Amino acid sequence: MTVAMARTTAGVYDRLFRPGQVHRDLYVDPQLFELEMRDLFGRTWVYVGHETEIPKPNDFVTRNLGRRPIILCRTTAGEIAVLINRCPHRGAVVCRSARGNAGGFTCGYHAWSFANDGRCAGLPLRHAYGEGFRLRDHDMARPARVASYRGFVFASMIADVPPLDEHLAGARRYIDQWLDRDDRKPVLVNNGVMRFRTHANWKTVYDNAGDGYHPPFSHESMLRVFAARYGDVDMKYFTADVDDSAMEAIDLGNGHTMLDQRPAMHAVSAWERQHVMPGREILEQRLFERFGAERGRQMLDASTGSGMNLNIFPNLLIIGNQVQRVDPLAVDETVIDWFSTSLAGAPDEINAARMRLQEDFPSFGEVDDSANFEACQAGLALVPELEWVDISRHLTTGRGRRGADGLWHEPVTSDRHMRAYFEAWKALMDAGSAARLREGGGR
Q1: CATH number of the domain residue 132 falls in
Q2: Which positions ≥6 away from 289 have C-beta within 8 Å?
């Protein structure tokens, strides 16, 4: 990039940021949303799915990569592949099923067919294309890069991205902790999904994932019911002055963050903090009979929610025992998929307990969050005279510190989560703007 070009592209998005504030356009401007889909979701590692969603050869699921339709599949040879779900002939979406098992895909328009590794396998009346026509010139496109970290599959539309391990930065150690906390049994993400469609910008959803300030207020009715019926259970520790607790917000680098509830949730016994659920006493009794009380309690403690809100920018959230994908559809519309998980080789009682616990928060807590997402969107969209959104909590209190792990830690109610990911947002969007200027496509 030339010096002149650098001057031209630097600071393209500066107007959207002030210390401790971001501009409402980040949430309501449809043109900015379109640029995000190209310059952000198209220029970094984006989570597309988990390997255990497609356990057998020829299994596939369809979803989006920043609105680009894709197929995540396991080929006939058993390899993981990500295909752009677009026919190279006329551009039609090829596979129109959400999931299935197929050795290949056929476009419904003109019946061009493709193997599940993307190779063009054939087409009707091929002779009309002449002698120079070659099938291999008409394979389905793929993202430039695909990589997995311990089963989590990511893809990038450009090749010029850092290695996935480097991109994940400090998040890797917490992904490892999340995966390894119960005897390193493999986590399976193939137990169904609870889907929420909210009329809100995708960043409003991402904002909330690392927000330790809202639980006692947004979820007040849920916490009151639980406390009245069962006492000191579940998330009641959020009703105290949580900034004086050992819970923290942690900046993991590259826009990734962690909300760590473990010091409160696992202070004594995470299992004992859980409220009544169907079959609780029977599950506990059977485990104690098989493994003894001490080991059984350890297994049950590990079966509860992890106490981790692990946020991998821009679209992967690991919350409790569940995996979430944030799927932007429009500037004011987002799909949130909650995938439940189980453990391969774990006792049936443990996986039953996990399932009962995973039914809990999405059913009773996410509805509160979705209502707030839509309230934020309405307020931001309908009052243009008020331009700025506050993200200044703990910006100037001096409560942040560099931990022994080399990461930045702040009190659990800090807005560090938003400040951290918006730094990554701006870097990616500025790079995308510069790339389009080099290519002659304007800003």
Answers
A1: 2.102.10.10
A2: none
Positive or negative, the CA dihedral 94, 96, 98, 101 is negative
For residue range 70-108, what is the model confidence (pLDDT) as tens digits?
999 999 999 999 999 999 999 999 999 999 999 999 999
Tokens of 388: 């700025």
The single residue listed with the structure tokens 């039609």 is 92
Note the pTM of the prediction, 2 decimals. 0.94
Residue 133 shares a structural domain with residue 178: no
- Beta strands 408-411 and 120-122, pairing class: unpaired
Task: Indicate the angle between helix axes 293-303 and 280-291, nearest 10 degrees.
Answer: 130
Domain that holds residue 224: 170-428
Question: Cα angle at 245 between 240 and 249, to 5 degrees?
Answer: 110
Whether omega for the bond prior to residue 362 falls within 30 degrees of 0, making it cis, is no
Share of the chain above pLDDT 90, in %: 78
**Cβ-contact 60, 99 below 8 angstroms:** yes
Contacts of 71 (CB under 8 A, 6+ apart): 60, 61, 62, 81, 82, 83, 85, 94, 95, 105, 116
